[in-house]
Amino acid sequence: MKGIRGTFLDFLADPYYTDETEAIRYLRDGLLVIDGEKIKDFGPWEQLSQRYPDLEVTTYKDRLILPGLIDTHIHYPQTEMVAAYGEQLLEWLEKYIFPTELQFRDKLHARKIADVFLDLLLANGTTTAQVFTTTFAQSVDAFFEACTERNICMIAGLTGMDRPGLAPEEYLDTAETFYVNSKDLIERWHNKGRNKYAISPRFALGSTQEQLDCCGKLKGEYPDTWVNTHMSENRKEIAQVAEVFPDAKDYLNVYERAGIVGPKFTAGHSIHLDNDCWHRMAQSDASVSFCPASNLFLGSGLFLIEKAKSVETPVRTGLGTDMGAGDTFSIFRVLNSAYKVSALQNQKMGVFKGLYLATLGGAKSLHLDHEIGSFDPGKFADFIVTNPKVTSVLAMRAARAAIDPGSSEEEQARERLAHEAFGMMILGDERPVEATYISGQLLYKKTSNLIG
């Protein structure tokens, strides 16, 4: 066993529905006890240190330790094509993305990018992600092989796209090959180690009804798999979906008719949904991935975060970089965009709401909160060590915190925490991340800040 001592923040409840003081768990001087891959114990240093007198402890001083960040929507084959200039969704796919993803026919290339991609996630503090691959089975094998080496929890699967004219012919699969290859990949990788499989039609426009029906068949045969796709991202895309699926009530209904909407179904973007769609998503216990950096970069629109987190239509919601339509690997930068999207709709996303979505909220959206997302004993020891004062601007800002001198010492500590964490949420990127632990092992370390 080993221990990590420092200042910890995680969540006990959703601050969108619970008072923030009750939703957060803040230990100014805490101890995390790790036994193998998982958390054995967690609590105040003063109490736990007596329970484990011989524990080997690593101490992080003047740092904030968070559960690992969770990215619920990202594309590993687009790593090289991040920040491509000047197009909206469909044109961007045609001009930049499909030519890039065609390279993943070569498994050696796919493995090279998978390694770079995972290392970038770790450097940005992301410890779990739901990931799109390509239509080539070898790109899935290469990805899961890289994940297995790191003992990291990732959700991924073969990307289905069989509609003629939507991509180069050599990129397209068929309903039959998608079904056969997906079935083989599920048998090979799903729940092997920490790998988890997602049935992944790219988006409704890219698939024929036959391929979507195959997705439903696979979900019926493997009910504990995930379903990962895109929905209602771009108005031109939505109009074309209505044309090719004239019998469907709306975009969501295309997926409903295929039998894939329900728990563990994630619809990336989901920007342009009407009230009926929000109610049906909530009733089915489906999830959405809020991808504000991508939505702003491609000019897709503003996600209705307050609708997703309303009492009337509570939908499981996580954050996604959607890299490479998103222009960053950093969930902190995604939170920066999320705050601005909320502000444009006369809402304000406080720091605890934002960090909840990035940690426990993301885990809940993926139905993985029994394994990750907080420091509860029994969960995997996936966490990050951050420095909220890592840059000169953050340090200067932290020194000017407006703390109520009349409040208690504990209240002042929480006020300072909120101030410094919000600074990291708005001004942060990969720089505040100093260490990333996966399954109890230190897999990324920027600098040496150990003092004990």
What share of residues are in beta strands?
15-25%
Considering the protein shown, what is the CATH homologous superfamily of the largest domain? Metal-dependent hydrolases
Spans where pLDDT lies below 50 across 5 or more residues: 448-452
Distance between the first and last residues' Cα: 16 Å
Helix-strand category: alpha/beta
Number of helices: 17
CATH topology of the largest domain: TIM Barrel
Number of domains: 2
User: In the CATH classification, which architecture of the largest domain applies?
Assistant: Alpha-Beta Barrel
Helix content range of the residues, please? 25-40%
Q: Could you tell me the number of beta strands? A: 16
Just give the CATH class of the largest domain: Alpha Beta
Biggest sheet layout: 9 strands, parallel
Q: Rg to the nearest angstrom?
A: 22 Å
Mean pLDDT across every amino acid position: 94
Question: What brief labels describe this structure?
Answer:
disordered C terminus, Urease, subunit C, domain 1, seven-stranded mixed β-sheet, 23% strand, 452 residues, nine-stranded parallel β-sheet, single chain, TIM Barrel
Explain what this protein looks like in three dimensions.
With 452 residues, this protein is an alpha/beta fold. The protein has 2 domains: 2-67 and 377-445, Urease, subunit C, domain 1; 69-365, Metal-dependent hydrolases (TIM Barrel). Helices cover 39% and strands 23% of the residues. The protein contains 17 helices and 16 strands. The chain has helices at residues 20-23, 45-51, 89-101, 107-123, 137-150, 175-189, 209-221, 235-244, 251-257, 275-284, 292-297, 305-308, 331-344, 351-358, 360-365, 392-399, 409-427; strands at residues 2-11, 24-35, 38-44, 56-67, 69-75, 126-132, 153-157, 159-160, 195-201, 226-231, 265-269, 287-290, 316-319, 383-386, 433-438, 441-445. Strands 5, 6, 7, 8, 9, 10, 11, 12 and 13 form a 9-stranded parallel beta sheet that branches. Strands 3-2-1-4-14-15-16 form a 7-stranded mixed beta sheet. Helix 5 runs parallel beside helix 6 and helix 13 crosses helix 17 (409-427). The longest helix is centred in the C-terminal third of the chain and has 19 residues, at 409-427. The radius of gyration is 22 Å and the shape is globular. 52% of the residues are buried. Residues 448-452 have low confidence and may be disordered.
